[in-house]
Specification:
three-stranded antiparallel sheet; single chain; elongated; 13 helices; mainly alpha
């Protein structure tokens, strides 16, 4: 079995037997394809890979200034791949068994300021179906802190305007209810009313909330394009913003205004409160900066 055959078999097993998401499969594919290219460059066959070869490969990743997260993720990908090949009897030994990728770095999220968010949201006009869609989309991202994948998969029956709740389906198909604030409710109802979503829908069969101009559901890439386009119009650099930044901003701003951390954890669908605590660090950093800028005795 050559490397490409082994990779295809492994990813198929990950998809069918382990039920990994498309994003996870693509991340594993990228990591392992990169390893395969490196093996080709060093004239290594799959059956001949040794522990020292993999150590050499990961040393090269570190030498190229790859982040701790990148190295750790690659390590997990490679170890999973070789462990599978060993279990299936394709290899007599696992050369990755003693690999250590190091701890993942936990970089602080970089939210937009409240003023930047409000400026961006208020800048979207209400003159066309596309405008109404984009306004509702941005209000949803900021108003709920939803993941992009959750927004992509949102269906009409997930919206309950009477109870003012939205059902989001997150990682591992876990579902949670999040509240609909007044600004979000108004934006969604306007988009779902006459002149909005219905003008984007060619047939009556589509159930996804957010549609593209060809009547299909918006994709992750489509949402990021909308975010970048709208940010550019108000002078926000595209390197500072993505759909995920709205999630960071939602959490950080809520905590800054006194929200309980466990409420924010529930809103964002974090399995561990340790993840949510990253946002408290952002709030403290902001507090320290504002204190130093404003307090008369900060620099005495």
């Amino acid at each position: 079995m050559n490397f490409d055959e082994a990779l295809d078999e492994y990813l198929q097993w990950m998809t069918i037997e382990k039920g990994r998401s498309r994003a996870t499969i693509e991340a594993y594919r990228r990591d392992l394809v990169a390893l395969g290219r490196w093996m080709d460059d060093h004239h290594l066959e799959l059956s001949g890979v040794r522990e020292e070869d993999l150590e050499h490969y990961f040393n090269e990743l570190r030498d190229h200034k790859r982040s701790l997260n990148t190295v750790a993720r690659n390590t997990a990908s490679v170890r999973g791949f070789f462990a599978y090949l060993l279990d299936e009897g394709h290899l007599p030994l696992d050369p990755s068994a003693r690999l250590h990728g190091g701890r993942r770095g936990r970089s602080l999220p970089k939210p937009l300021s409240e003023r930047e968010i409000i400026t961006l949201l208020d800048s979207v006009p209400r003159t066309s179906a596309i405008d109404l869609r984009d306004r509702a989309l941005l209000e949803l991202l900021y108003g709920t802190g939803a993941r992009v994948s959750e927004v992509v998969g949102l269906n009409l029956h997930d919206l309950d305007f009477d109870e003012e709740l939205i059902l989001l389906t997150g990682k591992g198909s876990k579902q949670r209810l999040v509240p609909i604030g007044r600004a979000l409710k108004a934006a969604l109802q306007e988009y779902l009313g006459p002149g909005g979503r219905s003008t984007l829908l060619a047939t009556k069969k589509g159930t996804r909330v957010f549609l593209n101009s060809r009547s299909g559901p918006l994709t992750r890439q489509g949402i990021d394009l909308i975010v970048h386009k709208r940010a550019l119009l108000v002078g926000i650099d595209r390197t500072r913003i993505s759909a995920h930044v709205f999630r960071h901003s939602c959490a950080t701003h809520m905590l800054a205004h006194g929200a309980d951390i466990r409420v924010v954890q529930e809103l964002l669908g974090h399995a561990s409160i340790a993840t949510t605590q990253l946002y408290t660090a952002v709030s403290v950093t902001t507090l320290q900066r504002e204190y130093e800028n404003a307090h008369p005795r900060a620099h005495e």
